[in-house]
Design a protein that fits this description.
Elements: E1 6-12, H1 21-34, E2 38-42, H2 64-76, E3 80-84, H3 115-131, E4 136-138, H4 151-156, H5 161-178, E5 182-186, H6 188-195, H7 209-212, E6 219-224, H8 231-241, E7 248-253, H9 264-280, E8 285-290, H10 304-314, H11 320-331, H12 335-339, H13 363-369, H14 378-383, H15 389-400, H16 407-423, H17 426-435, H18 439-470, H19 476-501, H20 509-512, H21 528-532
Parallel strand pairs: 1-2, 1-8, 2-3, 4-5, 5-6, 6-7, 7-8
Helix pairs in contact: 1-2, 3-5, 8-9, 9-10, 15-16, 16-18, 17-18, 18-19
């Protein structure tokens, strides 16, 4: 049996949803049962920092007392709680405050070489040193694509960006060392700068010593990969990382960031080759990330089957019958039932990429928020055979009765599917009836608009219950506005159709416009504002 130094999960507590302390403790219990020994809390600015009142302001930040409470509970369960912070980019919320304008390079990236940048980072380390007993820390440093090209460029001129990042990394590592921390960081920027934007390679890549030798000795690299279904890529990436001295971590992804429903099937598909490569390359530190991009709509507890499977794969157990039995023994819910939580994202038509790998899609978010009159996604819907959302709703409702304390997960997604049973194709049907001047069909559409509005209200209540169970209240206002706005928009569309049918409107301008193809033929848009309108404020 392979031994791991760390085998853990990372929970995103920065994308509108900060998990309640009670929910984090519940997750710690789940992880301990499954054989995990590590938990990272990903907090960009959502924790208290002395002397920084705007750090996590109105965002549900953790207090020092809360972090200490979680740390003590994790320790009592044999789980190492590791702070997962940012020290370069991903400060989207923070940079909105004028108080931090002086230390912003561009976008969400801190200004390198600015003394006040390092004053802030020192305060951050003082906080985590006080609140966490672990002396491991994830310092982020990922996806800083435009580093050095904003205010830094204005102040200092262009500088080799590898040199810039390495200089910053050394300054951060000195602060980490001051507080006794060994750091690990996402490795993508080293690859992206070398390959002009790409991260992943299928053949090993070499790095010059002028880069590898400048990575501090107390910093370890994390190769993160949530996408690949072939072991060759993982093997090549691990080999490429061996150019750098020191330990290598692996970060996989449990897909929770693509709308309201998980993609456990895709997590399982990527974890099989990933864990085979982890075993082959004798990787001692593994982290499975659970992100909450664009609103944390998906519950992290819906990922339990994928997280359990990943842990079993790491032990060399790839027998699904054995895995399903083991999962039921621990959670008293059938593995197959939990996998039903994927249903809202299950399309009738499979799309594959150039390698023949099935593409991930999130129709449940796209079809919920797409505008019934603007028709941005009508071509995608028309290409897709009808998604059986009514059947999905029924399957999830039945499974909720077998799910014990996790019944609310199934109930919420069942009610979402109930909305989509009518709304998914309502815009297409409305446009078709309008263009055919078929007022009888338009009257039927008007009735459906009224029912959709009611069903959205039912889903809103269920989703709010889920949120209140798992997350702090800050962040829910986003969903109130999104779903409340959706209900109002559905009502407006209905009222406009009624006026047209009664002859009070001679035409509906939105339904007169030709709809052009959108994207690559798949439901992959995850940003709410991009889904609802082509008019971006």
């Amino acid at each position: 049996m392979k031994e791991f130094r760390h085998f853990g999960v990372m929970l995103d507590c920065s994308r509108d949803g900060v998990m309640k302390v009670s929910a984090v403790k519940q997750m710690i219990d789940c992880l301990q049962k499954m054989g995990y020994n590590t938990l990272e809390l990903y907090t960009e600015d959502t924790y208290e920092v002395e002397g920084e009142p705007y750090f996590g302001y109105l965002r549900g930040r953790y207090t020092k007392a809360e972090l200490k409470d979680i740390d003590a509970y994790a320790k009592s369960k044999g789980i190492e709680l590791i702070p997962c912070i940012q020290t370069l980019a991903h400060y989207t919320a923070l940079v909105r405050h004028p108080a931090y304008a002086k230390i912003v390079d561009t976008n969400d990236i801190l200004l390198i070489d600015e003394p006040e940048t390092y004053v802030l980072i020192d305060k951050i380390f003082a906080t985590i040193a006080e609140c966490f007993t672990s002396r491991n820390v994830n310092i982020g440093m990922d996806e800083a694509h435009m580093v050095g090209l904003g205010r830094y460029l204005d102040k200092h001129g262009y500088e080799n960006r590898n040199e810039l990042i390495l200089r910053h990394l050394n300054k951060v590592s000195e602060i980490a060392e001051k507080y006794g921390f060994t750091a690990h960081m996402w490795s993508d920027m080293f690859f992206r700068l070398k390959t002009k934007g790409d991260y992943y390679v299928d053949e090993p890549l070499s790095f010059p010593e002028e880069i590898t030798q400048k990575v501090p000795k107390n910093v370890e690299l994390v190769y993160w990969d949530y996408y690949h279904s072939k072991q060759q890529t993982y093997d090549a990436m691990f080999e490429s990382h061996k150019c750098f001295e020191g330990n290598i971590w692996f970060g996989g992804g449990a897909w929770s960031w693509n709308g309201f429903a998980p993609l456990n099937w895709f997590t399982v598909q990527t974890m099989v080759p990933a864990m085979k490569s982890v075993i082959k390359n004798d990787i001692q530190d593994v982290m499975i990330t659970c992100w909450g991009d664009n609103g944390k709509e998906c519950s992290f507890f819906s990922l339990l089957p994928a997280l359990y499977a990943a842990r079993q794969y790491a032990e060399g157990n790839f027998d699904m019958e054995s895995i399903e039995k083991g999962f039921y023994k621990l959670f008293k819910v059938p593995f197959a039932d939990f996998m039903l939580l994927d249903l809202p994202n299950k399309t009738a038509r499979k799309m594959v990429d150039w390698q023949g790998i099935e593409k991930i899609q999130n129709p449940c978010k796209t079809l919920l928020y797409c505008d019934p009159l603007m028709g941005i996604f009508d071509n995608l819907i028309a290409q897709e055979r009808a998604i059986p959302y009514g059947d999905y709703a029924m399957q999830l409702k039945k499974a909720s009765k077998r799910a014990g304390k996790y019944d609310y997960l199934f109930d919420t997604l069942s009610k979402l599917c109930s909305v989509l049973e009518l709304k998914a194709e309502l815009g297409v049907r409305t446009r078709r009836a309008y263009q055919a001047k078929n007022k009888k069909d338009l009257l039927n559409c008007i009735k459906e608009f009224a029912e959709v509005e009611n069903r959205i209200g039912v889903f809103h209540a269920a989703f709010m219950d889920l949120w209140d169970r798992e997350n702090k209240p800050q962040g829910w206002e986003i969903h109130d506005m999104r779903l409340g706005g959706l209900m109002r928009r559905v009502k407006t569309c209905r009222e406009k159709l009624q006026k047209y049918v009664k002859g009070k409107l001679s035409k509906i301008d939105e339904l007169e416009e030709e709809i052009l193809p959108y994207g690559d033929g798949t439901f992959q848009e995850n940003v709410h504002t991009f889904i609802v309108s082509m008019n971006l404020a």
